[in-house]
Amino acid sequence: MSDKRVVIIGGGFGGLTAARSLGDLETVLIDRTNHHLFQPLLYQVATAALAPGDIAWPLRTLLRGYPHLRVVMDEVEAIDREARLVRLRDSDAIPFDALIVAPGARHAYFGHEGWEQFAPGLKTLTDAVRLRENMLLAFEEAERRRVATGIHDRLTFVIVGGGPTGVELAGALAEIGRKAMGPDFPALHLENMSIILVEGGPRILPGFSPDLSATAAAALASKGVTLMLNSRVSEVRADGVVIGGDVIRSTNIIWAAGNTASPLLASLGIARDQAGRIPVLPDLSIPGDPWIFVIGDAAHCAGRDGNPLPGLAPVAMQQGHYVARLIREGIAAEQRRPFAYADRGTLATIGRAQAVVQLGSWHFSGLLAWLLWCVVHIFFLIGFRSRVRVMAEWIWYYFTFKPGAKIIYTRTRQSGEEGRTPPADSPGSGSRA
Amino acid sequence: MSDKRVVIIGGGFGGLTAARSLGDLETVLIDRTNHHLFQPLLYQVATAALAPGDIAWPLRTLLRGYPHLRVVMDEVEAIDREARLVRLRDSDAIPFDALIVAPGARHAYFGHEGWEQFAPGLKTLTDAVRLRENMLLAFEEAERRRVATGIHDRLTFVIVGGGPTGVELAGALAEIGRKAMGPDFPALHLENMSIILVEGGPRILPGFSPDLSATAAAALASKGVTLMLNSRVSEVRADGVVIGGDVIRSTNIIWAAGNTASPLLASLGIARDQAGRIPVLPDLSIPGDPWIFVIGDAAHCAGRDGNPLPGLAPVAMQQGHYVARLIREGIAAEQRRPFAYADRGTLATIGRAQAVVQLGSWHFSGLLAWLLWCVVHIFFLIGFRSRVRVMAEWIWYYFTFKPGAKIIYTRTRQSGEEGRTPPADSPGSGSRA
């Protein structure tokens, strides 16, 4: 099987792990961006704690030393199962004998896509930089209004979704807003800034045990975050959100309320679940096509308890490793052992010196959990350089409360040229090259 | 005079220095962005060597501990000399008794503003990130085309303007393109990539002595940069530049051929020089208005030799310090000693281990000059944190040839949402807040 041509769609945790595990098979890795992104720390870019370059690495640089592997920066338009081709927007279609589909997910608005412009989500570096600048500009506007009118109107941030992303954003916003921004905005009374975390279910962090949810809720409350449980957003507008008939006025709404897998999956011609994921067989292949695999956030893969595995980096990485081995060793469908996820625990941080950890039946929280969280995330960062940079940032922030990335540059107060970055299809963009 | 209200327009080297030298006078500093930018290293962001956050700092953070000073992020629309008001786009007009105008300059196209879309310049962080992504996308496109057609078409970069910015860009591009990008793009023959530096005059670095210009030219040539002297660009198009009737095909054109001072200066109602600068009196005030000063790149201030002082950080900083003292001490126009620029030398780097230094009559170049350049720039960077970060980046790059910021995120290969950053006036921008 060593003449097998393998194509991987997506350079996330699953795709990158697979690419590195395929040995000397001729492989093409396709990604829309030029980098692998460490999504678990994306919220820290969105809250100005880390810089984009601290958590992203060019795929080509990561995959130096894999002579059989080619990286293509392009967008996949369709997967042609009959012709065994992956069709791209800008390049010729790429033939495959084995295909690993790992395109990830976007945040979902459940049919209310119009809400995105008022409540952006957090999946890409562009999302994170946009949220960061929205946040920083909100403080600037509040200060400007305060000086103009003399009125203190409280800054209100609304985060929709009580999963790890929402919780981590709320915790970081509370800290940065109350502590780090204070000295920069002396005219504002940041102690009565309000951060509201809206969760549809009865508790935050539903993926964790109830006791850890309670711990996290208490920790957020102590940071001054308002929790709204069993609350559903019925409308998102330019000036706020509507919840159960009440309007919460805010121009800083962040969407962390759910994911939908990449629309690309439609071209596989298989019925998807309500989250847009492909229900895969126990060997992560798709029904009737043993050499096409779907992994990561794009796959609906039942775990031991029958529920689909969560969209976590370890799941995607283990799946990437698993399917790479099946392909590398050319294991026939009937001889494959089912994929089994080895759960090494889940962590979520609520802020400085506060996190929750769930290792099987062992639950704990507080400073120790936070230190473990730091160690684990530093460990999984790629490369000595990033580890040093991020660790240094965290230590610096821990002691100084000065986040390192409070720069606004994609937008200025001027409506002129330097206030914009041209869209990909505009002149000046590399697509002209 | 301690009840004097001072307004400073611009948070660059001149404005920031003035702000820090005004003592306890009530001061307002206005800037369109939220940060002070270390422009001398901007070319390193444009060539992926440094990250934006490494060379920019929030003005509010820099000016903590100045209780009499207020920072306003807004755009100045006009200076009303009669009413003694600075009119802003989003806030109420701000009254002043003394005004320091330090809005800086933009790159100039000498009446060919249409060229900017094909040949962007380098003044802001947004410019730098845009150039960086154009460069990285150009390599991606070349690789894609190479694979699709089998043809090696050489990557051509054209830099218009042989001043320090153009020279530093050309040197950095040659290094990064030939050495750092090679391993990432095995299919490309980067040794025949071409970098063309176009200069209208007879030599590059005209601000330096002829011998240093010759040294710089030789150093660039040794890096494989093609110099075109006495050459004027007659047209810039999407597919290249026209020079003396010949067309140089390139989709990577960078404009470093001249500056024009901020259009805001028009509202002073004083005739400006051909570079849009205000001819100031020896005390840097404007004719007929002893308490309005123009400094930095916006001022046409004659030096000892009668020529206008160059647009350098030290000039702006010394001017900022000088006018702050006049205002702080309330020195009447007739008692003012003229501003005298103390030239502590000029430096320009041509790349790794190669720079030119001019200290009065003392000229030297090579490794020693480069080390001095590094030391001086590290020294003038603001804050321990940035110094450590930038020094670490340089040491890392010196040994590994892996620049630290090769991430493309404001544009992806997808034409979808995450391919763009919204313009300042769009929903989702803080101007809604």
UniProtKB/TrEMBL annotation, chains A, B:
Domain External alternative NADH-ubiquinone oxidoreductase-like C-terminal: 344-397
Transmembrane parts of this sequence: 362-384
Keyword terms: FAD, Flavoprotein, Membrane, Oxidoreductase, Transmembrane, Transmembrane helix
An individual GO BP term: aerobic electron transport chain
Cofactor section: FAD
Positions of region (Disordered): 412-433
Gene Ontology terms for molecular function: NAD(P)H dehydrogenase (quinone) activity
A Pfam family reported for this protein in Swiss-Prot or TrEMBL: NDH2_C
Residue span(s) of domain FAD/NAD(P)-binding: 5-320
Matches recorded under InterPro entries: FAD/NAD-bd_sf, FAD/NAD-binding_dom, NADH-Q_oxidoreductase, NDH2-like_C
E.C. code: 1.6.99.3
Family: Belongs to the NADH dehydrogenase family.
Protein name: NADH dehydrogenase
Species in which this protein is naturally found: Nitrospira lenta
Taxonomic lineage of the native organism: Bacteria, Pseudomonadati, Nitrospirota, Nitrospiria, Nitrospirales
